């Protein structure tokens, strides 16, 4: 389960950012998970509960809030913007492949207007801290 390593990195980054901003106590860490990453949000929250106790006191009691950023694409051939909902549906195996390597979306998706596989991923890729809340 690579969620453990991911959440550990998020907790460390949150701890560093809190120190940089003079926060003595972090109340919540809001993370944004790209849809293409297919990260288990519920598992991430559970893991954070354990990891925060292993980190400095500034994270004790903090909660993890997870938001998902839907994937979006722009066709380079015709300019059409589309989403996972408007493109061809992926099965579980395909979705897993994209989870580990988001660029695999080019193999399984195509533009709904012109059927091109030449598109850019404009949203929904990666994981980042969207907001850090706490007390000084």
Largest sheet: 3 strands, mixed
Can you give the mean pLDDT? 88
Estimate the strand proportion. Answer: 25-35%
Tally of discrete structural domains: 2
- What is the CATH architecture descriptor of the largest domain? 2-Layer Sandwich
Low-confidence stretches are none
First-residue to last-residue Cα separation? 34 Å
CATH class bucket of the largest domain: Alpha Beta
Shape: elongated
User: In which order are the strands of the major sheet placed?
Assistant: 2-1-6
Q: What are the main properties of this structure?
A:
single chain, 136 residues, alpha+beta, hypothetical protein PF0899 fold, 2 domains, 3-stranded mixed beta sheet, 4 helices, 6 strands, 33% helix, elongated
Structure at a glance:
The chain is α+β, with helices and mostly antiparallel strands. 33% of the residues lie in helices and 28% in strands. It has two domains: 3-69 and 124-135, hypothetical protein PF0899 fold (2-Layer Sandwich), CATH 3.30.2320; 72-121, no CATH class.
Can you walk through the features of this model?
The protein has two domains: 79 residues, 2-Layer Sandwich (hypothetical protein PF0899 fold); 50 residues, no CATH class. With 136 residues, the protein is α+β, with helices and mostly antiparallel strands. It is built from four helices and six strands. 33% of the residues lie in helices and 28% in strands. Strand 1, helix 2 and strand 2 form a beta-alpha-beta unit. The two termini are 34 Å apart. 21% of the residues are buried. It has a three-stranded mixed β-sheet, covered by helices on one side. A three-stranded antiparallel β-sheet has the order 4-3-5, with no helix packed on it. Helix 1 crosses helix 2.
